[in-house]
Amino acid sequence: MAGNDGKSKLSFLPTGSKLHKISALLTLLLLILAFSFTSTAFLTVNNGLTVLLQTSVIGLLAIGMTMVIITGGIDLSVGSVLALAGVAAGLVIKAGVPVIPAMALGIMAGAACGFVNGLVITKMRITPFVATLGMMMIARGIALQLTGAAPISRLGEAFGTLGNGTFFRVVEMQDNGFPKVIFAGIPYPAVLLIIMAIIGAFLLQKRQIGRHIFSVGSNEEAARLSGVNVDRTKIWAYTASGALAGLAGMVLMSRLVTVQPNEGVMYELDAIAASVIGGASLMGGVGSISGSMIGSFIIGVLRNGLNMAGTSAFIQQIIIGIVVIGAVYIDQFRNKK
Amino acid sequence: MLDTASPKTPLIQMTDIDKQFGGVHAVQGVSVDLYPSEVVGVLGHNGAGKSCLMRMLSGAMTLSGGQISVNGEDVDLKSPQDAKKYGIETIYQTLALANHLDAAANLFLGRELKTRFGNLDEGRMYTETQEALRQLNPNFKNLKDPVSKLSGGQRQVIAIARAIYFQAKVLIMDEPTAALGPSETAMVADLTIRLKNEGIGIFLISHDMHDVFDLCDRVIVMNKGRNVGAFRIEDVNKDDILSLIIKGTLPDDWTPRGQAV
Ligand SMILES: Nc1ncnc2c1ncn2[C@@H]1O[C@H](COP(=O)(O)OP(=O)(O)O)[C@@H](O)[C@H]1O
Ligand SMILES: [Mg+2]
């Protein structure tokens, strides 16, 4: 066949998703290069760590979002679920529960929201867009109702550890008695993101659930006829997305050392953008955690670099919007082939 | 009409099967049975209800009415997994392949091989797939390409390999050679005979009269959802079958062609 001949001739070129990932990685490197010219403070270790920290929340959301997108779905609720999870943790801490079990409860609240998304999608046969749009409003509403829209503060120092703690921080005492930070340390959230990304990639690539997630997004009917439990697979993906949104909520609220029921608005769009920039196809069946991490960093670096260059928040939105459209354009171009 | 005084119980007995989609009566009161080491052809026009009848046996579609029994035992096939538990494997007309996955991932989809630690055993799935595909097409390459990149024939070979890999007792082949070239078609015919001799019962849906007369022991003909005739293959000729497929009746002067044994 003509198609096959063409393919064998071009087989030394990376195909499909690999090509997309390479172009995303190149984009990231170009951005870093460009920003290091616009601002001398950009390409420093400390700023690098800041980007890591800022990217960790959207990166955590993007891991779950990618799994959902690969099943052919979408999760619009993660920003609200993040806030609700934070509120759940904050309220039980106020009621006297220690920080770690309270955070575990927050993550479970996120997982529960995701589980409900999965049930509504599979059992009530509501499309993912509508089901998670509903959950986006419900979770936000619950978070605001429970708190009266007021932040929960004075949660204790331990609550701030997850978001503000670091490994390998080096501080030197100076002669004048003031400490001098030599190395800011690797933030806990960055380490957490790396761990969760590795687990996510492992589940998608090496475990049966990952294989089933891809098959459901690729051809749901074929997956069902092959004996894949399609409903269970989808519920699993939405639950994972909810749990990761809960975890991202813990990181973000801990960093602020305050629970803000208004936090996380429009974060779902950043997470979707990160997945799509990283090569996930909204048609399902395609996507990777590594790509989505590159996508998260593209958004994180863009925000950070534009900030340091003094670009207004409005211009930032415009630029990120253009990047998303560009990425989806590449996606379409790829799907046509 | 049909002399099935076989001493064995049938592998499959489908009795009075009905399937409705809203107002569409896709299958009406069809009964058919299948014995070990037997190939039964299911014939009819496009839209006659052949695929629907078979999908109910695959567990891919629920029954509106009727009863299915396997080895004399009444069963309720709620899902494809249920059917597979009874050793009923299907080559679907649509092939049922996940386009973004490669041959091995498709062959083992839903029944992945795992290592001791529960991880996917890619190496073993790959070698098993290579072996299974080689039996059907010795030149099969591109095992690691997503199946969307493969030709129609290669895709069909994967669907066939998947159905026979898992030691089927009953095999449903819904137009298995539609996308195949002559040599692959001949290979599938050989395979059908080999599987039949191993004791497997096979339902074969085909429009190829040559295959039907070469391979089938019996045929049933469907027309507008009804079973309009069931015969031993010796008792009919091509014209009889075409008349049944098109008009739903036998030629006026028909008498059984074969000798009563
Ligand atoms: N899922 C479905 N929903 C509605 N109608 C269907 C469905 N599947 C099949 N049909 C209808 O049932 C009839 C029989 O179809 P089918 O069994 O595929 O025919 P065949 O395999 O003999 O060509 C056709 O009229 C078809 O349109
Ligand atoms: Mg059909």
Explained architecture:
The complex is a heterodimer of chains A (337) and B (261). Chain A has 337 residues and is mostly helical. Chain A has one domain: Orthogonal Bundle (ABC transporter involved in vitamin B12 uptake, BtuC), CATH 1.10.3470. In chain A, 71% of the residues lie in helices and 4% in strands. Chain A has 14 helices and four strands. In chain A, the strands form two sheets. In chain A, strands 1-4 form a two-stranded antiparallel ribbon. A two-stranded antiparallel sheet of chain A has the order 2-3. In chain A, strand 2 and strand 3 form a beta hairpin. Chain A starts with a helix and ends with a helix. Chain B is an alpha/beta fold and 261 residues long. Chain B has a single domain, classed as 3-Layer(aba) Sandwich (Rossmann fold). In chain B, 31% of the residues lie in helices and 24% in strands. Chain B has eight helices and ten strands. In chain B, the strands form two sheets. Chain B has a six-stranded mixed sheet, with helices on both faces. A four-stranded antiparallel sheet of chain B has the order 2-1-4-5, with helices on one face. In chain B, helix 4 crosses helix 5. The mean pLDDT of chain B is 91. Chains A and B meet through helix 1, helix 9 and helix 10 of A and helix 2 of B. The complex binds adenosine-5'-diphosphate (ADP) and magnesium ion (MG). Adenosine-5'-diphosphate binds next to strand 2 and helix 1 of chain B.
Largest interface here, residues on each chain? A-B, 25 and 30 residues
CATH architecture of chain B: 3-Layer(aba) Sandwich
The CATH C-level name of chain B is Alpha Beta
CATH fold description of chain B = Rossmann fold
